[in-house]
Design a protein that fits this description.
Pfam families: KhtT_N (PF25991), TrkA_C (PF02080). The chain has about 150 residues and is of the alpha+beta class. It contains 3 helices and 9 strands; from the N terminus they run ββββαββαβββα. Helix content is about 20%, strand content about 35%. Strand 7 (about 105-110) and strand 8 form a beta hairpin.
Length: about 150
């Protein structure tokens, strides 16, 4: 929408049409359309950027974490853990962390700059700024984050 912003459209599972216009000034307009006429707007609400942020917070689950990737009924979580440049593990081998042995957590990938390293081996050398993708129990992942935060 030239001069206004960007429009995002969504059709729900129940075939309801919604749109959000992200205005250049940070405001948002939330629109809902009549089911029988997809061009006939039934509701239009303009939100400030703060109101839009509050709406997003209300729609996310209370347990949401920006580093959380997924959870399953099996009690497993997958998270991103960033390795600090001042981490004790910066420059050390992955195997030296004893991550799987001590926490039960598996490091399934490492993101480094624009590269993804899947299934890193124990002889993989860690580097500050690496983002480790870990999978395990909630307790194990929390322990892994504590171990990796060591300076």
């Amino acid at each position: 929408m030239p001069g206004i912003g960007v429009r995002y459209d969504l059709t729900t599972r129940e075939r309801r049409r919604l749109s959000v216009v992200a205005h250049r000034d940070g405001a948002r307009t939330l629109n809902a359309y009549h089911g029988d006429d997809p061009d006939d707007c039934a509701l239009s609400v303009r939100l400030t950027s703060g109101e839009a942020a509050a709406l997003v917070d209300a729609m996310l689950p209370a347990h949401h974490s920006p580093s959380l990737l997924s959870t399953t009924e099996l009690g497993l979580v997958a998270e991103r853990i960033e390795l600090s440049a001042v981490s004790h593990w910066n420059g050390r081998l992955l195997g030296e962390t004893r991550m799987r042995t001590d926490t039960g957590v598996s490091i399934v990938a490492v993101l480094r700059r624009a590269e993804a390293i899947p299934s890193p081996r124990p002889d993989f050398r860690l580097s500050g700024g690496d983002i480790l993708i870990v999978i395990g129990t909630r307790e194990g992942v929390d322990t892994a984050a504590t171990i990796l935060a060591r300076e």
